[in-house]
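Dear colleague,

Thank you for sharing your sequence with our group. We've completed the structure prediction you requested, and as agreed, I am returning the results in plain text so they can be pasted directly into your records. Please verify that the sequence below matches your submission; if there's any discrepancy, let me know and we will rerun it promptly.
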Amino acid sequence: MSASSAIKQRLTDLNISQSELARQLGTDRQNIYHKLQRDNFSSRELDQICKILKLKLIMVDENKKEYIIDYDK
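Please find the predicted structure tokens below.
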């Protein structure tokens, strides 16, 4: 699943609009729309989006070890 697909699904699950996500990120809806279309996010942007959508951004290696990405720490 792409980052954009996961974000769109979570927005639907939480009944949050792209406009509301953009507002909470301090940007405009058009910017979020284009990022979702291109599936083009920095890890910092994904971290911010995850916090808003109550998710954790993690990487998992081939041995299933998880590495949590959190820019607040």
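Summary note from our side: Helices lie at 3-14, 18-25, 29-38, 43-52.

Kind regards,
the structure core
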